[in-house]
Amino acid sequence: SVFAAGALGALSEVWGELSQAAGAAERLTELLAEEPGIKAPADPKPLPVPTRGEIAFDGVSFTYPASPSRSALHELGFVIRPGETMAIVGPSGAGKSTVFALLQRFYDVDNGAIRIDGIDVREADPRAVRARMAIVPQDVTIFAASVRENIAFGRPGASDAEVEAAARAAQAEEFILRLERGYDTQVGERGVTLSGGQRQRIAIARAILRDAPILLLDEATSALDATSETLVQAALASLMRERTTLVIAHRLATVLEADRILVIDEGRIVEEGTHRSLVTKGGLYAELARLQFEAGVLEDAAE
Ligand code: ATP
């Protein structure tokens, strides 16, 4: 397995690239917490308990060490209040994933600061920062293990009752109980293959189980059938409730429900507002939305 202990050192070095493989990210995050590429300060500041989940980007600029000629983020500033849902929208390469990478502190900012509940993440223990976040990646990793183990991965040591409650909240229990051995069914390699929508609901169940105040959601671009779509949307609603949510949005339902949408392009914020206000404005968002969402639906929604 690539996760063998001996590979860990090498893994932390290539973390930048690996974190692009969003499916593996949550697994690697757990492992790298043991040996973070970015060192904890000698005397880390504790994050408040409970953490309210306010996220602030204050004039954040960042250039990847591997691409020194091009800055990925340029003086990015925003505040997400506890419990708020903010969608990030922007063309490919705009810097959306970089916002997620910096929040998880896979890199440190070059200028400015990122604060969680007012604490600069550089002054906190990276493990404590990551413990406050649940991540639902675009491509969900399903391990060669039982369904139960796959969900429990969200919080190792969770009881069977907790796993099942999370599966119910994630709209996953119905399909799980229809599998030959229910929660004990082997999935992944040499096991049952789960559909895209089922995999997404497993990831949502993991995040519900993790019960972190901050949710980072990298929405899948691949289309689901209408039934799956409805179930995934209901599962997400349950997950996002009362959590600060930052979502890289690809679906109309998501942007419609977001409290605010941040539109970024070439590492800068170019627009900010609700779906309705941004569509009316007729700028970059309106153009992206027109390309990405069905025109008819968009017009109805903008009424
Ligand atoms: P997409 O929608 O295609 O996923 P994005 O908005 O998430 O794009 P980012 O992945 O954040 O964009 O990329 C922002 C910029 O940083 C791009 O120019 C990209 O090429 C560059 N970049 C991203 N990851 C790395 C990396 N690990 N090393 C070097 N440059 C990177």
TrEMBL record:
Membrane topology, record value:
Multi-pass membrane protein
**Keyword terms of this UniProt record:** ATP-binding, Membrane, Nucleotide-binding, Transmembrane, Transmembrane helix
Q: What does this protein do?
A: Part of an ABC transporter complex. Transmembrane domains (TMD) form a pore in the inner membrane and the ATP-binding domain (NBD) is responsible for energy generation.
Taxonomic source organism = Aquamicrobium defluvii
Q: Which stretch of the full-length chain is present here?
A: 295 to 597 of 597
Q: Main localization of the protein?
A: membrane
Coiled-coil region list = none
Which ranges carry the ABC transporter domain?
A: 55-291
Q: Which GO terms describe its cellular component?
A: plasma membrane
Family statement drawn from the similarity comment of this UniProt entry: Belongs to the ABC transporter superfamily.
Q: What is this protein called?
A: ABC transporter
Which Gene Ontology BP terms does the record give?
A: oligopeptide export from mitochondrion
Q: Name one GO molecular function term.
A: ATP hydrolysis activity
UniProt subcellular location = Cell membrane
